[in-house]
Amino acid sequence: MREDDDWKLKSWLMQNNGTIVDHLMFQNIHGLVMCGTPAIEAAMAVESSEQVARWKARIKPGFFHHGAPEAFENAANKLIDLGLVIYDLESEPAFCWFVDWFKANADTPGDMHHHFKKAIVAAVLARAQAKSKVLITYMKRRVALLARTARQFDGKIYCRENEVGRVPKAFEGKPFVRPEYWLDNEFLLPTIHDIYGFTRLESLRLTRSERADLDAVIKMIESDAYQSLRNGYGYMAVGSGSARKCYSMGWSVHLPGWRTPPEEEECRECYIQRVELMAHFRVSRKCEWMQRSLRQLETYRTAEGTFLFPRYFLTEKRNGGYWVTGSLMGLEEDRRSSKVIEVESTYRMLNIWRLLGLYKPRTCAL
Description:
Blueprint: H1 5-16, H2 19-29, H3 37-47, H4 50-58, H5 72-81, H6 86-89, H7 93-105, H8 112-127, H9 133-150, E1 182-183, E2 186-187, H10 192-202, H11 208-221, H12 224-227, E3 235-238, E4 245-248, H13 271-278, H14 288-298, H15 338-355
Helix pairs in contact: 1-15, 2-3, 2-15, 4-5, 5-8, 7-8, 8-10, 9-10, 9-11
């Protein structure tokens, strides 16, 4: 990042941004104490916007996982993208239903779907900056569990055909994950939701052991062995005889642009989102994929020094789609003009720099 980039880009954004980016600039970029009048007014404008009201109304108690906008994983994460944090959401009864559910179930056993629901809710709470001891305990336990896998990971996670055993006809010939990656219905490989949850740990003071566990998991993800796995992992067969069940895994942490240019990848919609995610982790700063991504994003500079990403990197699917696959990347309400895409691109680039420690907000009060 050039030394004068931050001031020039901040100045340009202040002159061209919309309601959402205005608030996000105060929240993440300016480094201002949030008691200043402009910052308060920006936050209130977002809180009272039609877009926020619409996404709040979509949250439905008990509806955890789906590609529909009403699913908790999509609506809640979208609200956080728009600048809301746990204090803004705790007054919403539908959101609180999931908070209460997590507190009651964080350490309870259950089937695969039960554990997956916990990961989804934990990821949302982590992104919303929740400070719950229940959440932190859950995250640390999950990291420690995955670190065992990470320290001996060689990428050989799939069963040979003669090892799968009997499965329903619909699953014959499918890639099955070895049973040692499954413990008491809990998956021993990371999901994308796990990694969003772990961003909360990165901001805490961890013990040396906890830091080593977290770094081990992130290094595993940022390895050729992991990135060579099938997108979505494959399938898991649990139980035996008539009680045997087969599950589709999904939700692996693949990074677009690992081997081929991100524009050419099928999952290119989540490229910017995955760069933002991995930028949270200190150990990622030296990763070749991250350094290559920064060089790639520099190619989208405009003549004025701002950034203008391709629209497919900032997709907003009005009729639904999973938030974690980059289907809900829009910030401002009206995104028809290229100027709005330029504003969102430039803000996201500044935020990536901030997460990587390449840009430090100057703290002051208004």
